[in-house]
Amino acid sequence: MPMKITKFAFASLTILFLVAPLIAILPLAFTSSVILTYPIPSWSLRWFEELFFADAWRRAIVNSLIIGTGTTLLATVLGTAAALGLRNRLIFFRGTIRTLFLLPMVVPAVVLGVGMQVLLAGFGLTNSYAGVIIAHTVVAVPFVVVSVTGALAGIDERVELAAQSLGASPTTVFRRVTLPLAMPGVASGAVLAFATSLDEVVLTLFVAGPNQRTLARQMFSSIRENISPAIAAAAFLFIAATIIIALVVVLSRSMLAKRR
Amino acid sequence: MPEFIRFDRITKFYGPLCVVENLDLGIVKGEFVSLLGPSGSGKTTLLMMLAGFEQPTSGNILLEGTAINAVPTHKRDMGVVFQSYALFPHMSVGENVAFPLQMRGVGKAEIEKRVARALDMVQLSALAERRPSQLSGGQQQRVALSRALVFEPRVVLMDEPLGALDKQLREQMQLDIRDLHRRLGLTIVFVTHDQSEALTMSDRVAVFNKGKIEQIGTPRQVYDEPATRFVAEFIGETNLVEGVVEAVEGAEANVRLTSGAQIVSAVSGTVAPGQTVYLSIRPERVDLTEIRGDARNCLETEVTDSVYQGDHLRVQLQNAAYPLIAKLGRRSREFPPGTKVYAAFSAGDCRVIAP
Question: To which CATH superfamily is domain B3-231 assigned?
């Protein structure tokens, strides 16, 4: 019995440790005070108003959506293509290539950021949306590759062979069989790519100009300039978005599981 | 009858490994041919090459006299049934069966009619709206079967289609497929490692071993007249006894066993006097008598064990030099261990096999 209690207490403390920062920041989103501290004098939505109507914040939200959408599209297409290509057993150094695709997950963002800035400057893409989207795509692609590879691994190769024998050309097999079966993986990859872009600060600092300030970047700089509760409101938006995203991922995974 | 499919000197290597070696095989239209052999004998590889999933390293595959090596799978017009069913999990049963018709640009109304007929043929009309995952293994395989037949393919290829089903269902499906074959006049190439399945269903059986066909013939031929030791042992159970040919007269040979006994046996290949050979004697062809009868072959033996197996009595015998097994009908009397008996069989019930 004591063992059970210890386990329970340990688990509770671990969870508390993980969510404590969220618990600390969220109520502040609804404060009426102008400074980011407890205690909260009274409740208000003024900081959400600020977020949506103050020029800097509104632009940051729009930028995040533009860059996030661009990154999602690009990373999903590239990552899916990579996962499909890596299925081919005849590719030399398949394992090595797969590792290369996953490298951005482990390489320090600062290192990638410096490299990105040098590279994009060479193409004249610094301080442009395209530049930021490319930079975000580099770190988002691994998530898509992992997610789609997982979905593809679950497809019985014979199902595709059967489709061929029934008269489907390779492109038709892809369109009617492979892609629909991999779709839950593609969808959750896309969602993860969007989340990655939304959250990304370090690369953005290196490659984005003042016109591409994303929400995360705006939070980062405003916390140094003036600690206004608008940051807490932005954090609230982030968490809400993340929960929605997580729900989408979980739902698409369970859809995948149900099909088997 | 003209040949419909011809494998012309087919060889297939996987890297340094030769899985099919210089193989020739002809199949006639409307025929049910089984490719029978242990795993790794090349039978499935041959089927995969016929379907177009694999390319032969050398040799040609001819369909109605034309080489189809360069024809991609989706243009070969062959229905394939896999052991794993390979149904489309994201489509309903009806959509699965409609798929090959959609690929051929058949009109909507016509598709509906033909899908209904194809599902009716396998008694699954009531389940058209279900997903494959909601069906039992046997039902899934019937969907796969109707999907492979609905577009009236030129050939139906089956890769151990019944391997995942339990025994009773498997035997029912064997009879169902045989019935469909006869009713629709299908040409079927059927891969299996189950010899009784091959004997039950086929017009002809090709016995595979190490990438080669050891023997091809009707079920009766491969069982009663095995051409090689491998065939004799792989199909059914047999007693193999070593001996030396003394004389050959027409289709019969006199063989002296190591024990000294003389046996008269039918010969299928060519053997010469002085040659060391094996005799294959099917256990169910051996009769046990207490007095020396007038059978042409009669070996003095002693019963070492006798096991009642429900439909037959299995008796183990020891002759001077080798053990023998006899399977006796259920009306046979018991033979307790230690009984001295004669094992009797005619010349036609045993067969000389060159080693």
Answer: P-loop containing nucleotide triphosphate hydrolases (3.40.50.300)
